[in-house]
Amino acid sequence: MTEVTFAQLEPMPDDWQRALAVVAHPDDIEYGCAAAIATWTDAGREVGYVLATRGEAGIDTLEPAEAGPIREREQRASAAVVGVSTVEFLDHQDGVIEYGTALRRDITAAIRRHRPELVVTLNHRETWGETFWNAPDHVAVGRAVLDAAGDAGNRWIFPELTEQGLEPWNGVRWVAVAGSSMPTHAVDATVGRERAVRSRLEHRTYLESLTDEDPEAYVRSFLPGDARQSGKRFGNRPAVTFELFPR
Ligand SMILES: [Zn+2]
């Protein structure tokens, strides 16, 4: 039998101090990369979260007006578990986020406020690999994040932001895309994995709407880093993988 070999993943750069994760919905970071976030905050790095929506359209049995505040609360609790205290919401509409200049402007403003060296987002590609179709909100936000990393450094793009006192920030060195089917880099998830589980479990109302299973069993069945393929590509260690776009 022929052994299939995979290119090895590089370790993520670690010569940085501030990261900003920008995603569409509550639970996107927990689904994609919370174990890496825990590892980074343990090492004394600052990480902030920015969410395009409050995930108000994510629970079938709850009206958006009721679901939004619950999901916001769950997201803040979830962030706290992995050492993140800054959580902001851009108030785009869940499920129908439009890729365009309004979204790019809001993300550019967030990048200029927080001045991160590393920006993290969730898979912007059409699929999760093969024929697993991605949600349009993830595609819109992921693309806008990759664009805004450049927009943030140009004072003539969105000059109204400069007028509001948000000076250009050209210091984003990488955008790391979690959940990509084409990963290039990885973070060892050995230490952060248990906290990632607890972080995701804070989305209790949401998880209970997804499954009749015990929430913890459900979360553990999807744990990033248990994927044998990414482990094989990273010295057999559990890993959170990223597709890294250097700037
Ligand atoms: Zn999502």
Can you put this structure into words, describing what you see?
There is one protein chain. The chain has 247 residues and is of the alpha/beta class. The protein has one domain: Rossmann fold. The protein contains ten helices and eight strands. It has an eight-stranded mixed β-sheet, sandwiched between helices. Helix 3 (64-81) links the parallel strand 3 (46-51) and strand 4. The model has no long low-confidence stretch (mean pLDDT 94). The structure holds zinc ion. The site of zinc ion has 5 residues, from loops. Pfam families: PIG-L (PF02585). This is PIG-L family deacetylase. Keywords: Zinc. InterPro entries: GlcNAc_PI_deacetylase-related, LmbE-like_dom_sf.
Supply the key terms.
alpha/beta, binds zinc ion, 247 residues, 10 helices
